[in-house]
Amino acid sequence: MNPRTIHTQSEKVVKLLQKNGVMRRRELVERGVHHETLSRMLADDVLVRPSRGLYQLAGANMDAAHSLAEAAKRVPKGVICLVSALQYYELTLQLPRRIWMAIGHKDREPKIDYPPIRFVRFNDKTLRLGVDVHTIDGVDVKIFSPAKTVTDCFRMRSRIGVNVAIEGLQNAIKSRKAKPDDIVENAKKTRIWTVLRPYLEATLADES
Q: Residues 11-68: pLDDT tens digits?
């Protein structure tokens, strides 16, 4: 490959990654980028590989949510949940070491070295309920809504701790990122309303 072609392709890669943040090798190749161009850009420290098969610009200014975009790239069917979803919506001060991600009850658990992910199995109905799509660094990331996240935290309070669930509930109500009616609806659909009800009533009483 002649130097001019490499230069032109390098410009294309930079523009693509500036727009999308992180991309798979296959996606870049499908857009006409040669593997030799990627190898040269890695050797010149223009690109870095945060994990196998993923590319991003070296020194890219990525916020804390960037790891969620990488996780979504690696597990397209997964949904960000529990503490990671609370953190994304700024409903907790917790900083999870792993990304909490929901997958189907019968789905094969992917083997991923980076980013670190903690998988949680949801049944089909619960996995489909309350899913929002957010664009992070050009990547469509599925994240449970604030109301659904709060109810899931109470469902799985034994895993994350009831104090974290209460914190998420109180912050969701205070910030108005989740309406009480939406929380009630999700709680009833996921059969956790009996448990969640006294906490919601106490939170609403404190806010009144």
A: 888 888 887 777 888 889 999 999 889 988 888 888 888 777 888 888 765 566 788 9
Where do runs of H (alpha helix) occur along the chain?
A: 3-20, 25-30, 35-43, 66-74, 82-88, 124-128, 146-155, 157-160, 162-175, 180-189, 193-207
Domain boundary among 18, 36, 57: 57
Q: 183 and 117, same structural domain?
A: yes
Contacts with 2 (C-beta within 8 Å, 6 or more apart), sequence order: none
Nearest 5 degrees, angle CA 184-CA 190-CA 195?
A: 65
- Helix 146-155 with 180-189: angle, nearest 10 deg: 50
CATH code, domain with 203: 3.30.460
93 shares its domain with 37:
no
What's the token pair of residue 96?
Answer: 């999870």
Question: What pTM did the predictor assign?
Answer: 0.74
Burial class for 157, CB neighbours closer than 10 Å (0-12, 13-18, 19+): middle
Q: Judge if 40 and 76 occupy the same domain.
A: no
Q: Are residues 17 and 107 in the same domain?
A: no
Calpha distance 95→93 (Å, rounded): 6
Question: With the C-alpha atoms ordered 113, 119, 125, 126, is the resulting torsion angle positive or negative?
Answer: negative
Using alpha carbons, list the distances in angstroms from residue 82 to 61, 98, 207.
Answer: 26, 11, 24
